[in-house]
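Entry 12.
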Amino acid sequence: MALTLFKPELDLWEPGEHNGTFRGNNPAFVTATATLEAYWADGSAMEKQTRSRGEQVEQAMAAIAEENPAAVKEYRGRGLVWGMEFHDKERAGRIARRAFELGLLIETSGPESEVVKLLPALTITPDELDEGLRTLARAVRETA
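Predicted 3D structure (tokens):
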């Protein structure tokens, strides 16, 4: 969900004449409202769940780094946003390709695409997250 503000005199389109992410998407607003009501209703459930999943990712990243000390330069993250940087800058791309072949969609980032980044959905279950992390570990091993 996003919000873009601009001057009324620049909003020259009639309703339905132009669309895009900056014009509003009613199903997205309904979904966002339901998400806010479900996950932030008590003020802490989503925070606790995100911290727990983040710890799960951190433990898996530590294990991957420990298993591959010559390959992994460092890993870093917070919550459910994590990255693993590799000494061999091209290896991250190979890992992303192998992970995709194994059914996991991940991206690279960094100035030279040397980081494999993880951005799982906030609603991911512990079992789904474990499956993805096992796939990532396998992709790292198989690209040695």
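Annotation: The domain at 49-142 is CATH 3.90.1150.10 (Aspartate Aminotransferase, domain 1). Residues 99 and 105 are 7 Å apart (CA to CA).
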